[in-house]
Design brief:
Largest sheet: 6 strands, mixed
Shape: elongated
Number of helices: 13
Number of domains: 2
Radius of gyration: 27 Å
Strand content: 5-15%
Length: about 375
């Protein structure tokens, strides 16, 4: 007799499970078409900062003049400080905020002397990532402030002037924030619902028990069913990234290599959610309880993990929880760092570390609670 081929058994289970997924129209809709609708809706919004602008000052900006005071007092402008614990300006964080769209511009106010020796203050050497409309609006605000000072016409007054923006950084479009969040949203809910329901149904119908009685190893049974769901979700993620890149100008800093790193990050998140799905399918008593447990785990993350809007809008204490506890935050942040900021996956140490802790806890619990019947 030929020895039982575990690999062929694994492939057979994987193929059968994958075919069952493709035969379910609702799975195709909620896994791919539903996120696509959200991406087009949110991704089509303008990428500017609306009627309020956050700016930072450059290192050499002169703040001892009326031009600075007038800008600071303007209701449409907020001046953001990037001081570290030592009281020094964190230039890297300031630049990152500019590139991510959290700042409209980095402004330099400088003192010069004209041909008559009169001192004047000018706005120059300004960095911006804003769209054309926002650049025009900011310049109009600065010009209006300058003109209001000029109209005072006080003898010996330090007349300001505005010089157009001369530097620009890579534009941070709205889709660069929306798409990674929608990938996280799609992966989170589709994977949890798919894994939880399929394993619960297989247990209720005694399919798992029958599999358990075969020569197929228990690990291959679990992997065959689970990986088919993960592969399906991974295909959806790849299609969504391609859709964003080719149709909505989603940024992939290093091109195909960035695409591969985002794929790797997705696989890590999918493996974590596989464990969560196994736990939920094992502890529920009926299929009606599955959505409740999934929402208890996933719904707070959908709202708090920077999926639809930045975490910065929350109070500081809640931001700490969002940034250092929620696994979906780690996935969203890592995907944005890889796709737009140009970091490689090994540069996302914090995110990978927190996900690794979550994975250790989840699979420890899953091993304890998983049932075959």
């Amino acid at each position: 007799m030929q020895p039982f081929n575990q690999f062929k058994a694994f492939v057979a289970i994987l193929e059968a499970s994958f075919r069952s997924i493709l035969a379910t129209p609702s799975a195709l809709f909620f896994s791919f078409l539903f996120p696509v609708i959200f991406i087009f809706i949110f991704g089509s919004f303008g990428g500017g900062n609306g009627v309020h602008y956050k700016i930072a000052l450059s290192d050499n900006a002169d703040t001892t003049n009326e031009l600075y005071d007038s800008i600071k007092a303007n209701e449409l402008i907020s001046i953001v400080s990037f001081k570290n614990k030592k009281g020094q300006t964190d230039t890297a964080e300031r630049r990152k905020a500019l590139e991510k769209g959290r700042l409209s511009a980095i402004v330099s106010i400088q003192k010069i002397a004209d041909s008559n020796g009169n001192k004047r203050y000018i706005i120059r050497d300004t960095l911006t990532n804003s769209s054309g409309n926002d650049i025009t609006a900011l310049q109009q605000i600065f010009t209006s402030i300058s003109n209001s000072i000029l109209l005072k016409n006080i003898p010996g007054h330090q007349f300001p002037a505005v010089i157009p923006f001369v530097y620009a950084v890579r534009e941070y479009r709205n889709i660069d924030f929306v798409l990674p969040g929608m990938l996280g949203f799609s992966v989170l809910f589709s994977t949890l619902f798919g894994i939880s329901f399929i394993f619960f149904q297989f247990r209720q119908q005694l399919i798992l028990k029958r599999f358990y009685a075969t020569p197929v190893s228990r690990m291959n049974i679990l992997l065959g069913i689970g990986i088919s769901r993960l592969v399906f979700q991974l295909i959806n993620v790849l299609m969504l990234i391609a859709l964003g890149y080719f149709f909505l100008h989603f940024t992939l800093v290093h091109g195909f290599f960035t695409f591969l790193e985002m794929t790797t990050m997705t696989i890590i998140m999918l493996l974590l959610l596989l464990g969560v799905g196994l736990i939920i399918s094992s502890i529920v008593k009926s299929d009606t309880s599955i959505p409740l447990f999934i929402n208890l785990f996933a719904f707070p993350q959908m709202l708090l993990a920077g999926t639809f809007f930045p975490i910065d809008v929350f109070p500081p204490w809640l931001q700490t929880i969002c940034r250092y506890v929620l696994p979906l935050t780690q996935f969203n942040d890592a995907m944005r760092k890889i796709s737009f900021s140009g970091l490689h996956i090994w540069g996302c140490g914090k995110e990978l570390g927190i996900l690794a802790i979550w994975m250790l806890i989840i699979y420890t619990v899953a091993i304890k609670v998983f049932k075959w019947e």
